[in-house]
């Protein structure tokens, strides 16, 4: 019990606060747990994984310590591990052989391409886990952009037609959620129409509704093999990181076109956007804790500058506090192990 003293103002603390002492419920572990407003559970986690060709391959990604490129057979084993940990879903991203990449990203239209083979294998072995696939063209193009390049311009409508066709192929391979990240105008509506026309009304769409032109994507581009390919930048189709009203308009358009879920990417620098979208649309809302965010925490922890485990958990709780229903994070299996333990 604090000794009652009189501050310099002449009034006691109880007089100043009118008896409202907000530390009362913070005094013990049990009381802090009793009033905790947000909790992180394994049900909040989506695990992004990188896929490569070959067999029994696990390649380290230097910029993302603890993250690997996985051949399909190894990805299946990791999907089995994820399911045992209770992780609801995986998000898969391919590192496509350079010989298969071209100006239009035509390999995305191959029903037996790397990403579709991974989906088929995972769903065959672990049918209870969700598979989320991205239909952006950047892993398939020789220039690293998310769309078809014509005379140095990313052409919107031709890209949308190709993305919609690819979405149908991904659904046919067993994808549960199509998550287009290319930020082309009209892509959500075109994908919804294509899926429905081909009997895939049950396949959901998680829109990368607000994908910002960010400096935090570097390690990801290394992971999918586009970092050295990209000429120029993606500012003609990603959102300016200074704009929030524009982000809301983008999300609103995707909702009108049929998005089932919204995603904000990157995550931590855009908690205000998460909150705005959740308040505005009351739709399931997700954040992608991107490669740069992951790498910063890992690097700082490796240098002893912060407690990596605590920083990881704090960052994930921040997403829940901002309104997220789930988080795409490379920390997913580590967090799931901790929660299970």
Q: How would you characterize this protein structure?
A:
- The chain is α/β, with parallel strands linked by helices and 341 residues long.
- The protein has a domain at 39-262: TIM Barrel (Alpha-Beta Barrel).
- It is 39% helix and 16% strand.
- It has 12 helices and 12 strands.
- It has helices at 13-17, 29-34, 72-85, 114-125, 156-173, 187-197, 218-224, 245-257, 271-281, 291-302, 308-322, 332-340, and strands at residues 45-52, 58-60, 68-71, 89-94, 130-133, 148-150, 153-155, 177-178, 204-211, 261-265, 285-289, 326-329.
- The strands form 2 sheets. Strands 1-4-5-8-9-10-11-12 form an 8-stranded parallel barrel, surrounded by 9 helices.
- Strand 4 (89-94), helix 4 (114-125) and strand 5 form a beta-alpha-beta unit.
- Helix 3 (72-85) crosses helix 4, helix 5 (156-173) packs across helix 6 and helix 8 (245-257) packs across helix 9 (271-281).
- The longest helix has 18 residues, at 156-173.
- The protein starts with 12 loop residues before the first helix and ends with a helix.
- The mean pLDDT is 95.
User: How many alpha or pi helices?
Assistant: 12
What percent strand? 15-25%
Average of pLDDT = 95
Largest sheet: 8 strands, parallel, barrel
CATH superfamily of the domain at 39-262: Aldolase class I
The termini sit apart by: 36 Å
Shape annotation: globular
The CATH class of the domain at 39-262 turns out to be: Alpha Beta
Strand order of the largest sheet: 1-4-5-8-9-10-11-12
Number of strands: 12
Radius of gyration: 22 Å
Q: What share of residues is helical?
A: 25-40%
